[in-house]
Amino acid sequence: xHITLAPMEGVVDxxxxxxxxxxGGPDAMVTEFVRVTEHLLPAKVFHRLxxxxxxxxxxxGEVPLTVQLLGSNPEMLGVNAVRAIELGAPAIDLNxxxxxxxxxxxxxxxxxxxxxxxxxxxxxGVRSAVDPQYSVSGKMRLGYEDKTLAxxxxxxxxxGGAAYLTVHARTKVEGYKPPAHWEWIARIRESVSIPVVANxxxxxxxxxxxxxxxxxxxxxxxxRGLVANPFLVEQIRxxxxxRDPAYNWQRLKPYLLGFFEDVSASIDERHVHGRIxxxxxxxxxxxxxxxxLFQQLRTERELQGVARVLYAECTPVEEPxxxxxxxx
Length: 328
Ligand SMILES: Cc1cc2nc3c(=O)[nH]c(=O)nc-3n(C[C@H](O)[C@H](O)[C@H](O)COP(=O)(O)O)c2cc1C
Prior knowledge:
The protein is of the alpha/beta class. It has 14 helices and 10 strands. Strands 1-2-5-6-7-8-9-10 form an 8-stranded parallel beta barrel, surrounded by 6 helices. Helix 5 packs parallel to helix 6, helix 11 packs antiparallel against helix 12 (269-283) and helix 12 runs antiparallel to helix 13. The longest helix has 22 residues, at 245-266. The protein binds flavin mononucleotide.
């Protein structure tokens, strides 16, 4: 069993990765994409997006954090990959799935899947530039408009020299609309000889099992499901683990406070409120308690107000000392 926390721009940043690592779920993580255009990016850009580069090992304990690059210029991807490795990245992943208009307009992300040659060139450019001891991988959707080039793109990633391939089992046009087409991951897995990581629409231990069965993959990547329920990996690994949202909400509270403190320390004060609301919205897909907390926070305008509500909800109520307890 090998579970990777998915890269999610604007959602799975360093504070979220820290929560996930502290809860002890994933075996590996991937950063939000670092966008590469026509320049060698300064080190400070990598450090801003990947503060873990300052750790002695870029990751959390045994859990490595792969740095993801997004771009279409093979040479520029190559030099930026080398820079990321020099700064401490343990591995490089390449994004062939981003649906964002701005990114696709400059021929990066999912639009590259219209042209498997460009996918091959990008992987090859990075693979040739980076020392062979570091892994280079690719992450793709099933296509842009349709799935006709899915196998060709997977082969392009393999032939470019990728160590493994992650497949988000939907086209760009399908967006994030369920279902994810896990059966297509099986077709891809059968057509390449590198390991394939299955991704898309895993929300419960049952989804995880079905995805493994349908795709035939041992390695799975989970995004929204893990942000909404950070105990999901625990529940997948241990069928005895509690799946009671009320119980797990209590366990989550200290992490929620830690996240608030981390976010407050790392981003502009004006954006903290938005990040807390964003996570609560996603937590609300799994925990009814998060929806209630969101309602309490909704009208708060000042950071102090947000802090007050969060601390009131999440600080454990201490038992009074024995000597002060009333006789029963
Ligand atoms: C808000 C958001 C941001 C994302 N950012 C990235 C990204 O930076 N790089 C990437 O390869 N995929 C990105 N993805 C796609 C996810 O990694 C993943 O493939 C997708 O969410 C499907 O997995 P899930 O159903 O487990 O969430 C993003 C998805 C979302 C919802």
